[in-house]
Amino acid sequence: MKIVMKFGGTSVADIEKIKNVANIIAKQSKTADVAVVVSAMGKTTNALTALAHQITDKPNLRELDALLSTGENTSVALLALALNSIGVPAKSFNAMQLGIITNDNFGDAEIMHINTWGIPYEVIPVITGFQGITEHGDITTLGREGSDTSAVAIAAALCADYCDIYTDVDGVYTADPNVVKDAKKLDFISYDDMLKMANNGAKVLHPHSVSTAQKYNIPIRVRGTFTPNDLGTLVAASKQR
Ligand code: ASP
Ligand code: MG
Question: In the 8-state DSSP scheme, what is residue 100?
Fold first, then answer.
C-alpha cells in the first residue's frame, strides 16, 4: 500500500502541531509506504504576500513566487527534523531538488511532469506543496491552496493507492460545519459532486486537486489531523474500490 499524506497550514501551524503530524506519519509508515506533502506553517503565505505589498502594489510575479515558495521550504525541513527526532528516517525536498516541472504561468502554474526517480524509498520524502520549477529553473507556485494539487499530482506520479489530505476538519460535510449546525459528515462523495462543492466555494479541497484526482483516478481521503484514527471522507469515482 502506497499513501501520499498531505498536511495543510493549520496542521503544521506551530512546533507542537508539527510534532503531532510527525507522530501520525510515524504510525502510518508502519503499515504503508508513505510520501508526505506539506503546506507552509499557519498564515505564512499571507504574511509573505503582505511583505511584498509593502514594497509595491503590483509585485513582479516571478519574484512573488520566489518569495511565497519559501514558506513551504521551512515547513518541510522542520517536519523532517521532527520525524528524525522520533527515530523515523525522513528527508525534505523542494520542487527544485525533486524536479516538479511546471509551465511558467507564475502564481498559477500547472504541473507538467514530476521526476519520480528523485523520490527516495529508503527514507520518507517530505515534499514542499505549492511549489514548482520551470524548465529554465525559475521557481513557480500553483496558486493559493495549491498544495492539495501538488499532493494529488505526486500521488498520481507514484501510482499511490490513496492521497490522504489531512486538514482541520475531519472530512467533507454537506455544508460548512462551522456555519450550519446540523451539517453531516459524508463517508463518500463522488469526484463530480466534490468538484461541484469545491467550485461553489467549499474550502476543504481545491477544485484543481479534485479534477486532477479524477483525471488520474486517485482516491482522496479527507481526514482530520486532530482525529487521525478516523478514515474521514473518501472522494473517488465510486464507493466500492
Ligand atoms: N501555502 C500556500 C497557501 O497558503 C499553499 C497551500 O497552503 O496549499 O496558499
Ligand atoms: Mg487547503
Answer: E
Name the pTM for this structure: 0.96
CA 8–ligand 2 middle distance (angstroms): 6
**Residue 207 Cβ < 6 Å to ligand 1:** no
Q: Each residue of 88-118: b (16+ CB within 10 Å) or e?
A: bebbbbbbbbbbbbbebebbbbbbeebeeee
Q: Which of 42, 51, 57 is CA-nearest to residue 11?
A: 42
Angle between helices 61-68 and 70-85 (to 10 degrees): 20
Give pLDDT tens digits for 48-101. 999 999 999 999 999 999 999 999 999 999 999 999 999 999 999 999 999 999
Alpha helices in 43-190 (DSSP H): 44-55, 61-68, 70-85, 95-98, 147-157
